[in-house]
Amino acid sequence: MRSPNAYDVQRLYSKHEEKDGFKGMLGSIDCMHWEWKNCPVALKEQYTRGDHKKPTIMLEAVASVTLVKGFACPTDEPRIKFTRFQASARKDVERVFGALQGRFHILRLAARTMSVNKMRRVMDCCVILHNMILEDQGFALSDWEEDFIIEDMENRPECIPNRGRDHDTIIREIRYRTLHDQQTDDLVEHIWNLPSTFCTMN
């Protein structure tokens, strides 16, 4: 219900690396199509795609600016392993959408609202309720002790880890092809050097 601070980001980096093996990544990206039953006629063509017969709203979950694609046709063992790990990490977001639809029946039905904004509010409400349920069941990423640590760190800015480079610098580096390829190769090598028991440990 709030934007992540620097401490949250560092904690998410650590959790994601511990679970999936990827360094410096907050998560993955995926989307789901929510059928829009009462889509206004004037907007119908705008929200209809060829692979969906009826108007839909695409809901995206984006957890990181940095997107790393798997290899379409990996030929060597390191790239095959990397693509397998990347596909596994990507499935996390797919499972979240599945869990939301399983828990909240309204998301499985075609939306009856007349506006995109109301659909967004319904989805936001379901996500917030889902997070509250996880927290109540003890599955939340943070607990009350960590909240005290966060509050203390926010009161002392010098203790907040520095995220380093600014957003524009990161985007320029991603778009610079040679550097992008080098970073991908480094990530492939990192995944390849993980112990063979890494998947069984998580």
Q: Round the Cα radius of gyration to an integer and report it.
A: 20 Å
Largest sheet: 2 strands, antiparallel
Number of helices: 7
How many distinct beta strands? Answer: 2
User: How many distinct domains?
Assistant: 1
Short structural description:
The protein is mainly alpha-helical and 202 residues long. It has helices at 6-20, 77-103, 116-136, 144-155, 167-175, 177-192, 198-201, and strands at 29-35, 56-62. It has one domain (6-74, 83-167).
Give keywords.
mainly alpha, two-stranded antiparallel ribbon, 202 residues
Fold and architecture overview:
- This protein has 202 residues and is mostly helical.
- Mean pLDDT is 76; it is low at 143-150 and 156-163.
- The chain has helices spanning 6-20, 77-103, 116-136, 144-155, 167-175, 177-192, 198-201, and strands at residues 29-35, 56-62.
- Helix 2 packs across helix 6 (177-192).
- The two termini are 28 Å apart.
- It has 7 helices and 2 strands; from the N terminus they run αββαααααα.
- The protein is globular.
- Helix content is 51%, strand content 7%.
- It has one domain.
- It has a two-stranded antiparallel sheet with strand order 1-2.
